[in-house]
Amino acid sequence: MEVTRTLARYVIESRYADIPGKVKHEAARSFLNWVGCAVGASRHETVECALAALAEFSGPAQATVLGRGERLDIMQAALMNGITSHTFDFDDTHLKTVIHPSGPVASAILALAERTPVSGEDFLHAFILGVEVECRIGNAVYPEHYNVGWHITGTAGVFGAAAAAGRLLGLDEQQMVWAFGIAATQSAGLREMFGTMCKPFHPGNAARNGLLAALLAQKNFTSSSQGIEAKRGFAHVLSTGFRPEEITAGLGKTFELSLNTYKPFACGIVEHPAIDGCIQLRNEHKLKAEDIESIALKAHPLVLELTGKKTPQTGLEGKFSVYHSSAVAIIYGAAGEAEYSDAVVREARVVALRDRVSAAVEPGVHEDQVHVTIRLKDGRTLEKYVEHAVGSLGKPMSDAALESKFRAFSEGILSQAESDRLIRLCWTIAGLKDAGEVARASVPASAAGKRKAS
Amino acid sequence: MEVTRTLARYVIESRYADIPGKVKHEAARSFLNWVGCAVGASRHETVECALAALAEFSGPAQATVLGRGERLDIMQAALMNGITSHTFDFDDTHLKTVIHPSGPVASAILALAERTPVSGEDFLHAFILGVEVECRIGNAVYPEHYNVGWHITGTAGVFGAAAAAGRLLGLDEQQMVWAFGIAATQSAGLREMFGTMCKPFHPGNAARNGLLAALLAQKNFTSSSQGIEAKRGFAHVLSTGFRPEEITAGLGKTFELSLNTYKPFACGIVEHPAIDGCIQLRNEHKLKAEDIESIALKAHPLVLELTGKKTPQTGLEGKFSVYHSSAVAIIYGAAGEAEYSDAVVREARVVALRDRVSAAVEPGVHEDQVHVTIRLKDGRTLEKYVEHAVGSLGKPMSDAALESKFRAFSEGILSQAESDRLIRLCWTIAGLKDAGEVARASVPASAAGKRKAS
Questions:
Q1: What is the pLDDT of residue B280?
Q2: Rg (CA), chain A
Q3: Which residues on B lie below 8 Å from A181 (Cβ)?
């Protein structure tokens, strides 16, 4: 079966009108979430390091580093935005493959869209196709490929970036085939790097190299025509299992974007039900920490095993404490990056409430479930059973929740009005004349005009 | 065993004075051969495509594309020179691993040396260390890694480039460890790409990405500290076999550059004994094609199996014809790129002589051996037994032969005086105040001053 060619043909022949409205909306949700993550981490040490190392070598000021003033050549901008969008590990997740789909794809084509303006419709279409390509390739080799030790967001992401960029560049079929080959021969990224700056480097690198693949193919730089399926191609060399039909079956009929999910909270997914339950009770009953006598959780064993840290001392340790997470859920009604700062973890009222949280294993409670019982000082008892934690496929984050998550990221970087405008542009991306407007709108007035990292 | 750290420590602590003179001379030989290959292919379609795609995105005009007028940022220059130097597949070969060692390493650091001038001594030292790193990593995983389907020049080359660039950038031990980690997580390149433009792209990409690794590490961009040996690090993920002691044993005592070889002829290595034998007889007896009645070869079976094409029609087919190769050896006394042009393959006197060549399998003749019997029209018979073909470790190309090879490449690109000067600079690299002088000297006066590919 001609896997690479079949996929290439689909990418160049797909028509925007044939894509279901729900998929288009999910694409806008993924894109909004991605922009927020990138803006939110735009001041992080990881991107500061990368900019300090590389800005000197940038070509023309073609494209925006989201949330910042620097404008870099498109290859470097793709790298930087891929890095920032994954720095908090808070971007979207295709749970079937644990690919973070938006980073490689959106980073590549938003940069490209600033060099050669494209309509929002063409942009969103290319984004959908890029995500489709990377997730289908992921489906064809997951879990074997991941188990070998590959960080699939990097290894599959480079194909997604090549597909989306190639679509916008107007590659013909053979050029798209070559783009996939050039992507295949750059596919890289090791799980060994988790916990270091190289983890967010992977989607950045996938974006940069996928874009490179499409640009080279556009000039007829040749490659194998079976880059994915050949005996010495991507799938057989980088995986011990390969199901090519996962790539080719139902192309244009099913869309992997429908399976995309968004994390509401900046911590391990096993804590999400408890946080969800506490926030619900807080909002329903206008709870304040001082009203609460105790919080009791009945949860899945993994919650205690992975996040049972009773007295966290740092922000990072706070992420591994379901006690801390429940306390901030009540006090702040949120569990974003801000609630896992060192300062918040040490805040007196957070510590005081945290010490009144208990957790026990309850047989029969699933991983995305929890029972929360809050005893109030006035004697009342409040109960909440969470059947599917928010953010799971069973209870996806609402559009409004995605907006709130975005605002938590952009606060302190963008003004309220700037956030409003950027959110609106993301939601209405399909109607924009020039998709690159989103990138430029991510730059606060205060930072605009900076050329390079100093 | 701390493989990555041990290797990093060696690279930063090595002293030039401790490296044997023979190794330094071999480094100069490798470098001369590499510069020649790069200049020779500097007008090839492969690099024209790459420049057409990428020059637009180049940063400052920091570094030379060898043999051409363009000056690009160092990352792009490293990519281009890595591509050109491997385009003819005529660069050096570490036969133990089939790595082409110079491409990734020299491409990275010659570009770097034009941005931050370094002495020729420091340059040659970094080159030696880079080759040592990539070949030792290759030794530790060859042949299993190659058999999986990896193009080892790309996958190991990125470490060599990182090591050499990191040495010149003055990385400390931890930074060098990180540079190896960042290299590991970019290690890529599939054998599936052989026969396409992606093959020479691999050393170019290794140079570009190894340089990137060193530059990021210099700014404390973090990575794993066991990028090579960890359970999910380079060796275990990209190979089914790993012998870490091949990396760490005898560091600073043995040098892989001593095992480097250079191809004298632009075709498959199995034809080299026949070409060698024919050229020797030609030169010893001042033979002309019209004096020759017939040429009979007794050779290893692989010669007929791989290069048994009786009536080649194109230059590329000529490379797979021991008959054509023997004919040009007599007529031109050479078998370089020029002798494998379409025109030469169709030349009447070449075709006429080719048809008088026969080849037979002879039991007991090894792969780098041949018996050549030439019957002359005057009745005489000439014999030559080649025990080790020129270019093998048993009979390395002489310095003079490397110079001739260089001149065959530079002819038509550089003037005689320009070639003379460039050759002299390569031989005397260790004494140069500014190693970047070599790069600038590779540009013919006629091409100097061009900024970008048009």
A1: 97
A2: 22
A3: 192-193, 196, 198
Q: Which residues contact B66 (CB under 8 A, 6 or more apart)?
A: B35, B38, B39, B42, B81, B84, B85, B110, B439, B442, B443
How far apart are alpha carbons B122 and B105 in whole angstroms? 14
Domain ranges of chain B: 3-262+407-441, 269-386
B193-246 tens-digit pLDDT: 988 999 999 999 999 999 999 999 999 999 999 999 999 999 999 999 999 999
Please name the member of A57, A182, A231 whose beta carbon is closest to the beta carbon of B73.
Answer: A57
| Residues in chain A closer than 8 A to B79 (CB atoms) | none
The answer to whether the peptide bond before residue B143 is cis (omega within 30 degrees of 0) is yes
pLDDT digits (tens, 9 = 90+) for B145-191: 999 999 999 999 999 999 999 999 999 999 999 999 999 999 999 99
- For domain A3-262+413-441, the CATH class is mainly alpha
Inter-chain CB proximity A185 and B192 less than 8 Å? yes
Whether domain B269-386 has CATH 1.20.140.10: the reply is no
CB–CB contact A192 B186 (8 Å) = no
Q: Tell me the ipTM for this assembly.
A: 0.93
A161 alpha carbon, distance to own chain's centre: 14
Q: Does domain B3-262+407-441 have CATH number 1.10.4100.10?
A: yes
Between A and B, how many residue pairs show a Cβ–Cβ distance under 8 A?
175
pLDDT in tens, A33-46: 999 999 999 999 99
Which residue blocks in A286-398 are alpha helix, DSSP H? 301-307, 315-318, 322-332, 342-346, 348-354
Q: Dihedrals φ, ψ of A300, to 5°?
A: -70, 145
> Could you give the count of Cα atoms lying within 13 Å of B412 in the half-sphere of its Cβ?
8
Residue A311 makes CB contacts below 8 A (sequence gap 6+) with none
